[in-house]
Amino acid sequence: MKRIAVSFICLLAALLLTGCDSTGEADGYYIEYLNKEKTGIVKVPYEPETADTNVLIGDFLRMLSSDSDNVEYKKPIPNNVEITNYTLEGVLLSIWFDEDYSEMTEVEEVLCRAAVVRTMTQIEGVDCVTFYVGNTPLTNRQGVLIGTMYADSFVENPGEQINSIQNTTLTLYFSNEAGDGLITESRKVHYSSNISIEKLIMEQLLSGPEDSGTKSAIPSGTKLISVSVVDGICYVNLDEGFKNQDYNVNEAIVIYSIVDSLSELPAIGRVQISVNGNTNGVYRDNFKLSDMYERNLDYVAVPEEEDGEKTDSQKGTEG
After folding, report:
1. Does this model's pTM top 0.85?
2. Tens-digit pLDDT profile for residues 291-318
3. Cβ-contact 73, 115 below 8 angstroms
4. Backbone φ/ψ region at 204: left (φ over 0), alpha (ψ -120 to 50), beta
5. What is the C-alpha separation between 52 and 126, in angstroms, rounded?
6. Residues paired with 6 in a beta bridge
7. How far apart are CA 186 and CA 169, in angstroms?
8. Tell me, what DSSP letter sits at residue 1?
9. Cys-Cys link to 217, which of 66, 175, 205, 250 (CB 3.0-4.6 A)?
């Protein structure tokens, strides 16, 4: 989803549940439905007539495509979406949907996925699920492959599951094509209520820009380890990929792409960036990792149609 998802899509985090275990035997089976507003998920107890794996798969898929007896609950697989086939190979359940699957809204699609995967992985012998639309593996709106999903793929914080979706508009800062200035991008996103907004911002930055004429300032391959906010300071911990330098992007643009994007949040006044938790050393030549950086809009480029000549600071020169 972007992300959703992404980030939803896709987006994914630590868990307390184990995807390989069936919850059916211990706690009783349930079917996951959408709430009336189609913004969250509710669990409804269900008593099947058999524990046979193959029978349960067909039974559960039928229930997920059928209306609940309670008018307050909506089936996660909508009327126009048809399951054309499914197979179980080992512990992987593959489900094929027709092309109408792609017509779902972003929020509805993510909740549908979560409901189907978490319902199906209760079955003994079904540990993970993959989706196909037509004959093509499911991708998010940005074309990123969703891949194999587990029950814990929809857990954001330990002990908390994605049961509701929120939406917001983010202001993100990406590099211009020349790598010497920042360009703002306003992005509407849907996200799990369990994910922190600062984590959402970092994931969106790492997924790259949507607008033309811009590119990601953060080095390709960088992964987010953690992000947290304490007393107005946002601590961003990135992996070794952050050291993969792209010298076509000014080092200040890399730093302030992160700092300015996070500083859009009123609760964040300063940002510190670490690599694998280490704040020793200097990023390239001038930016100490031990320092805490404040919002700096001097590097934001003015579009040429608005101002034919840019100042040195708007060009992103250092100093």
Report:
1. no
2. 999 999 999 987 655 444 444 434 333 3
3. no
4. alpha
5. 12
6. 3
7. 7
8. -
9. 175
What is the C-alpha to C-alpha distance for residues 46 and 29, in angstroms, rounded to an integer? 5
Torsion of CA 36, 106, 41, 73, to 10 degrees: 30
Q: What are phi and psi of 34, to 5 degrees?
A: -90, 150
How many Å apart are CA 176 and CA 163, to the nearest integer?
A: 37
Q: What is the pLDDT of residues 80-122, one digit of tens each?
A: 999 999 999 999 999 999 999 999 987 788 889 999 999 999 9
pLDDT in tens, 33-60: 998 888 788 999 999 988 899 999 999 9
Where along the chain do its domains lie? 2-161, 166-315
- Which stretches does DSSP call E strand in the chain? 2-5, 30-35, 41-45, 73-74, 83-89, 92-97, 128-133, 136-137, 155-157, 160-161, 165-176, 182-192, 214-215, 224-230, 233-238, 270-275, 282-283, 287-288, 293-294
Single-letter residue type at 152:
D
Q: How far apart are CA 156 and CA 229, in angstroms?
A: 17
Cα–Cα dist 14/156, whole Å = 7
Ordered DSSP codes for 95-160: EEE-GGGGGS-HHHHHHHHHHHHHHHTTSTT--EEEEEETTEE-B-TTS-B---B-GGGGEEETTE
| Tokens, residue 85 | 């086939």
